[in-house]
Write a structure and sequence with these properties.
heterodimer; A: 268 residues; Rossmann fold; B: 279 residues; 11 helices
Chain lengths: 268, 279
């Protein structure tokens, strides 16, 4: 899905590079959590994957298309949708369904197809009841789901989420994450930038960015089994419990870190 | 508590009424006709006719009259200034004197008609925005202005700019309110002192607001680009505009009303008043 080789990017010629030789391969259907400190290059990498920026060095291929080639820009953006941190910054229209239709309208699709996509995106994000409402009247969580619906209406193969849950309350975040889980089960590739380790733990793979480079890449259990200590990330409670149960021999090796899996292992 | 709230003018109220269902082009042209008619209205009885039209619009839009009338609130101060200026500086037959100030019969008539005209203009413009979503409004405007694209006028960009401007009215008021509260909590005083001092005290609000607006504009531009928006490129519509028979009927009915109102103002009401005076 994404094939990034020695990608580098600088916002100014004299400044520190935001990306400094990133190598990353992401397969179709993967859910990857991109973590790292502020300024480590996560958002720049997401923008390169969406062809909003072109790497100054190296290459980025999205579905086999070179993201540096302006001729591929439209095809890449149709297949890779980006959801930002603040939903207020990405809602264009005042009415929910009109905003969801913005992307498909830009593609010049016929009205019936736009309506079908809008219906589907609103259904997936559980916003059907709000379709005729003003976007300004939605709650923070609903606005973020609207931003997601706008991205999904493009019917992309991959979703890039740039700290999209950071402004949500716990309930809104749970609902948003369960929506992401459902999309991933349907085969959508997800690249999620986050600072929350409990969200990173949901992904199938964690990539740590540090000073514009990939500093660590692997599955969540390996990361939380000591790997995270290097970057002083906070271990999610589930992972801490899993680790404690394993070291005390209360659950067999190989038990997954999910609550249900651990309960089942404890009851055996 | 809110210090700043978005004015009700420009806020779309979703609905399924007859007026909501009209083509936005019809509503824009109708508003222009209404405004032309209002500029020609002069007597108080004529404004009663216009008020009847407002009642009809309220019934046909399903929006309460009180809500429609509230859209005139942002210009109340302007109306008041206009009324006072016309009341005190119009020469004519003196009705009352207050020191150097004279109130004339002509002044009363002119002040009342000017004030009412201004109010009705804003209320009818508000009515258009209340019953037309910003997207539909800009679509309508784009289609009306489409002949200008032959002269390379960027009609679609203009329409998109208008959609975004309307969409951000409530957001900007919210942000202003937030900055205002933040500055008050840090000891800012916006209420004491003379005009100059008060004006200066608003600088700490304007600077962060401008920074925020530019930041928002940049973020929105990136978000629009990522959603495949290309300035000037052909876009399709989920709800393409369709001119129906009811649009033509509504426009014809309104034009007839305006002609009737002008006739009443110029001839009928004057004839009735003359007849009453004779009796």
């Amino acid at each position: 899905m994404f094939s990034i080789r020695a990608a580098a990017y600088s916002y100014s010629e004299s400044g520190t590079p935001a990306l400094d030789g990133v190598d990353l391969e992401i397969e179709q259907g993967e859910w990857v959590a991109l973590v790292g400190a502020n300024g480590s290059g996560k958002s720049t990498l997401a923008k390169i994957c969406n062809a909003l920026l072109a790497p100054t060095q190296g290459t980025c291929f999205v579905m086999g298309l070179d993201a540096s080639d302006p001729q591929n820009t439209s095809a890449i953006r149709q297949n890779v949708a980006l959801v930002f941190q603040n939903p207020e910054d990405q809602i264009v229209a005042s009415i929910v369904e009109e905003d969801v239709a913005f992307g498909p309208e830009n593609l010049g699709l016929p009205p019936d197809e736009i309506r079908r996509r809008v219906d589907r995106a609103l259904l997936l994000t559980d916003l059907e009841l709000y379709r005729a409402r003003g976007s300004y009247s939605l709650s923070g969580g609903q606005k973020q789901r609207l931003a997601l619906a706008g991205a999904l209406a493009l019917e992309p193969d991959a979703l890039l989420l740039d700290e999209s849950t950071s402004m949500l309350d716990p309930e809104g975040r749970d609902s948003f994450l369960s929506c992401l889980g459902e999309l991933n089960r349907r085969g959508m590739t997800i690249l999620q930038i986050t600072h929350r380790m409990e969200e990173a733990a949901l992904a199938g793979r964690i990539v740590v960015m540090e000073s514009g480079r990939v500093a660590w890449d692997g599955p969540p259990p390996d990361f939380f089994d000591g790997g995270y200590l290097r970057w002083s990330f906070e271990e999610p409670p589930e992972m801490a419990l899993h680790h404690a149960l394993l070291t005390r021999g209360l659950i067999p090796q190989g038990t997954k870190p999910g609550v249900e899996d651990m309960l089942e292992a404890l009851c055996l | 508590m809110r210090f700043m709230s978005a004015p009700s003018i420009g806020q779309f109220i979703p609905g399924e009424s007859f007026i909501h269902g009209l083509d936005p082009r019809c509503k824009i042209v109708a508003t222009v006709i209404l405004m032309t008619g209002l500029f020609m209205a002069s007597g108080i009885p004529d404004f009663l006719l216009w008020f009847c039209l407002l009642l009809l619009c309220s019934a046909l839009s399903g929006i309460k009259l009180g809500v429609i009338l509230r859209s005139g609130r942002p210009v109340l101060f302007l109306v008041l200034v206009t009324v006072v200026m016309n009341l005190l500086w119009t020469p004519g037959t003196e009705l009352a004197r207050l020191g150097p100030l004279r109130i004339t019969r002509e002044g009363v008539l002119l002040a009342s008609s000017m004030g009412l005209r201004l109010l009705f203009l804003v209320i009818f413009a508000g009515m258009l925005m209340m019953t037309t979503s910003p997207m539909a409004f800009s679509d309508g405007l784009e289609r009306i202005m489409s002949p200008l694209s032959l002269l390379r006028f960027p009609t679609s960009e203009m329409a998109m700019m208008m959609t975004i401007a309307l969409r951000f009215i409530p957001t900007l008021f919210e942000e202003t309110d937030r900055i205002l509260k933040a500055q008050i909590s840090r000891g800012a005083d916006f209420e004491s002192g003379g005009i100059l001092r008060r004006a200066r005290s608003f600088i700490p609000i304007l600077v962060p607001l401008f920074v925020l607006v530019f930041q928002r504009a940049e973020n929105l531009a990136v978000a629009m680009e990522s959603r495949c928006y290309v300035p000037g490129a052909r876009r399709s519509r989920m709800n393409p505009l369709k001119w129906r028979g009811r649009d033509s009927s509504a426009l014809a009915g309104l034009a007839l009303f305006v002609v009737f109102a002008i006739f009443c103002d110029r001839y009928l009401f004057k004839a009735i008043l003359a007849w009453l005076a004779m009796r």
